[in-house]
Amino acid sequence: MVMAGETEHTDDLIHSAGELRERFRNDPDRPAYHFMPPWGWMNDINGAIFWQGRYHLFYQAYPPEDPRQHWGHAVSDDLVRWTDLPLAMYPDPEEACFSGSTLVEEDRVIAIYHGTKAGNMVAVSSDPLLLNWEKLTGKAVIPIGTQDDPPRPYSVFDPCIWKKDGVYHALSAGTIPDRPGGNRVAADFLFRSKDLETWEYLHPFTEDDRFTLVGDDGACPYFWPIGDRHILLFFSHMSGGQYLLGDYDKERDKLVVTSGGLFNFGSITPSGVHAPTATPDGHGAVVVIFNMNPGMPTEGWDQIMTLPRRLTVDGDDVRIEPAGDLESLRTAPVEAGPLTLPANEEVVLDDVAGDYQTPCQRSQCPFLSTFDPLGDRDFAFSG
Q: Which of 18, 145, 157, 270 has the highest CB neighbour number within 10 Å of its CB?
């Protein structure tokens, strides 16, 4: 058995996370509503799911003890207050743990992700907090291959997974020369497997995509039903977070695209949304969170998560609203009014100001989690 988490390091990492969060508590530029890792840079967000009564969030973490990408891990009851958990995925045999997604089954959770210099990996966990993961086969289930291998019609990169008629299906991100002159556009390549260990390549997944641009790629895909349609969320390194909406032809295993759009307008930096992670909400909608690129230089931390969004569809239109218990974060409301606003005059409202910071006591902070899955260790800081 190859374990994806190393329990002997858990205590040190948890205490380190708490100390680092405490160090940044009075940084006026560090958001309180948005989750971010306790240390350093955060890259792609991964595998958000609802499992045994809690939401789980994974992300690329760079722990000080080993700055290669691991899967960081946090848990929440409401999509708003997040508690740090031990690192979920450690790089071995791959060089680093890159992007991927998760799938909930009745008695376990499946993670599929890209292991650099190895290929796409599969790991499974069945404990209540998803602290312990077993990597199937101990090697990549969809390997990258070598330069000596014959050319392949697909690329091996960020994967996502779902199950149809008892058979696992997975996408692997990339591009395809599908435009005049061999210009490349976003593509996600479809595989299937009966046992998660042996995978068969089928074909490029999308059809009739008239919405992505030349130069886009299909990184960090998430494919889920939404209402009576299906949505493919992904990240383009050129255009940022976006989606394709369409109908899932299950006979041909194709997403027939009918519309598409962007989740940010303009450049992906500064402050554009980056990679998505998405999960069905159980009521026909999809909840999505992105990691967001920085808008200004910061010291000791970089990138944050967006607030969760709930996506629904109406025909070919995707509608967006906030998700999670965001209203519970609002404290000390200030009311002003009734007011007369004269033309061409400035009106200053009492007790309303920007860039106002007060050191936050633990008992008063609405964004601090009270759930500590590891007993009495004082590390559950979320802002």
A: 157
Q: How wide is the angle at C-alpha 274 spanned by C-alphas 271 and 275, nearest 5°? A: 160
| Dist. CA 261–CA 383, nearest whole Å | 31
Model-level pTM?
0.86
Residue whose token pair is 């607030």: 307
What is the per-residue pLDDT across 154-188, written as a single tens digit (0 to 9) for each? 999 999 999 999 999 999 999 999 888 999 999 99
Q: What does the block give as tokens for 273?
A: 């949304």
Ordered by where they begin, the domains of the chain are 7-225+295-304 (2.115.10.20)
CB atoms inside a 10 Å sphere around CB 92: 16
Residues β-bridged to residue 188: 173
Q: Are 40 and 302 in contact (CB under 8 A)?
A: yes
Length of the chain: 383
DSSP-derived secondary structure for 141-193 = SEE---TTSPP-SS---SEEEEEETTEEEEEEEEEEEEEGGGEEEEEEEEEEE
Q: What percent of the chain has pLDDT over 70?
A: 88
